[in-house]
Amino acid sequence: MNQDLNILHLVTQASLVVQLVMAILLSVSLASWAVIFGKLIGLRKVKGGNDDFEREFWSGRNVQELYGASERNAEAGAPMERIFAAGMREYLKLRERRVTDAGALLDGARRAMRASLQRELDTIEHNLSFLATVGSVSPYVGLFGTVWGIMHAFTGLSNLQQVTLATVAPGIAEALVATAIGLFAAIPAVIAYNRFARDIDRVAIQLETFMEEFSNILARNVGQGVTAPQGASR
């Protein structure tokens, strides 16, 4: 390969502004890959934890025992487990206050679970907007570097008596490297954002479905007049 068109040589010979653009894009690309790997691990943990708790919940184990375990495991537990604990906690508090109205009991438990769900989704979606920003902005930042580099190249060529393809090509190539790096940063971020958004939607649906099923269990137990649910069954 011609030394003048070597990628490393093009980067080192680019103007200061273009080099700054390249450095920003490379930094953003590294940050987005860190977010991508972190989100992959985090979502796998969330889905695995939710599935494990859901199996345990429907295994017929006493709900109050599950609640006690969830309270002790509040920080390390799965999102579904924390939502369940929030609903049970509010339900039991209302029962302790001698609230006997079935509608008030269920509404209180649902509100607590809905608030917990929103907190969990906010945590799961953390840094997702960063990937969206990288995917949408990086190509334009790279394009800015390319335009600036081409302007710089043509300004330098204006002092030459004779301009050939050999004299034009290195300057244009230097500028186009910025666009290439911008696309290198944007494409993985867009793909990862779409994948994670779809996975988070599935997690949200799973959690909302569990909330409705648990609300039905509470409704059945309220109708029977018991202090707290004794067991869960489909």
UniProtKB/TrEMBL annotation:
Membrane topology classification: Multi-pass membrane protein
InterPro entries from the UniProt entry: ExbB/TolQ_transport (IPR050790), MotA_ExbB_proton_chnl (IPR002898), Tol-Pal_TolQ (IPR014163)
Keywords per UniProt: Cell cycle, Cell division, Cell inner membrane, Cell membrane, Membrane, Transmembrane, Transmembrane helix
MotA/TolQ/ExbB proton channel domain boundaries: 78-208
Transmembrane residue ranges: 16-37, 128-151, 171-193
Principal subcellular localisation of the protein: membrane
Subcellular location: Cell inner membrane; Cell membrane
Main function: Part of the Tol-Pal system, which plays a role in outer membrane invagination during cell division and is important for maintaining outer membrane integrity.
Quaternary structure and interacting proteins, as annotated: The Tol-Pal system is composed of five core proteins: the inner membrane proteins TolA, TolQ and TolR, the periplasmic protein TolB and the outer membrane protein Pal. They form a network linking the inner and outer membranes and the peptidoglycan layer.
NCBIfam families noted in UniProt: tolQ
Similarity comment: Belongs to the ExbB/TolQ family.
Protein's name in the database: Tol-Pal system protein TolQ
Lineage: Bacteria, Pseudomonadati, Pseudomonadota, Betaproteobacteria, Burkholderiales
Gene it is expressed from: tolQ
